[in-house]
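Exercise 3.2. Students should predict the tertiary structure of the chain below and write it as structure tokens, then compare their answer with the key that follows.

Predict this chain's 3D structure.
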Amino acid sequence: MYRMFYPVTGYNFTFPKFDIGFGTNPAFSRFCTVMSISDSVFEKRLHILILISLNLTGAHDKMRNRYPCIRLITSLLLIFTALSILFIELPSRSLTPMVKRALNDGHFFLFAAIAYLILRLLNFRTRAISQWRDESYLVALMLCALLSISSEWLQRFFGRDSEIRDMIFNSSGFMTTLGSLFIFKSRFMKRFGKRTRFSLQLLFLIVLTITATGLFFNLGSLIYYHFSYQHRLPLIASFEHDWELITWEKSPATDIEFNLIHASHGSRSLKIDCHSYSYPGIRLEFVPPDWSAYRAFAFDIFNPQATALELKLRIDAKNDTSSISTRRYDSLSIQPGWNHLSLPTSAIKTNREGKSMILKNVLRVIFFMRNPPQTLTFFIDNVRFE
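Answer key:
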């Protein structure tokens, strides 16, 4: 047992002895002088609580040094937690496309943290970064690459799509962490002279600056569209700008890309390839919510096939009686060539079952096919209000 004595007040406090260096925390010694000037019971108890917290802070550091298994277990738990985020299906109904895309760009920061945690896991007996083994960086690089590829592949079984774009952000994230620590902290770099180290560090900083610029440019395009799309109305999408693609999301077994051949407005359209699957298609998530001021929802579709194409249109909107959205389905017979289609907003006020839909709170628009027997292609352009 330890017994602490307040020099002025004569107050004694007894507590169990922990062999982790109690009383050796420098903050403890400094605080003893301050605590001796008060003698009320309340202040004594407050001092005791502060002393215990100061001691636990020092104890935590000592335990981490004496018991490296704590770092091992902590790193494993944090890595598992970080990886589990990749398999959480985002609530698409409550997130705007800008937020969802920003979360997707979070792959960079997520794998940057995972790379650091893996390095700590591989060097759990050594706390100082400058003393980490050189070979651990290579092992961490291979493990991060394996986790990036396998996680994207496994996401398909958890209701999420695997995308090459995510793998690029994953790679950029863990390469940034591993490269930074290796260039500036590894023992291997100390073998080179100062000029060589400075040159390599400068080169790495240039590459890092280019990567950061690309990341912030992507986020900047999201913010730009978020604040500018209202000024483009009644035009919703013309596909003349690359950043317009952020408003559209593709379903599984669907490929989308810009096309310069078939365009009804401007010079580009959006090409959609629907492969043989249950419900391939595209979803317009960033749709203007208030349709009440417009007469119709219109769009142009080009069918390159020699026969008519059966396409489904789904519009989701909130209703008056329930917080759950109401869906309206329409069948579109797309003839070969260009089809200029228009759906009156007055017809969208109710769906086929007679349920009401609030035109001031439209949530999304979906174009899809139902079990196509083979890969079918169509082009969409000039999505607008009339």
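Discussion points: The helical segments are 26-35, 41-66, 69-85, 97-105, 107-122, 135-154, 164-185, 194-228. Residues 1-31, 33-39, 54-61 have pLDDT under 50 and may be disordered.
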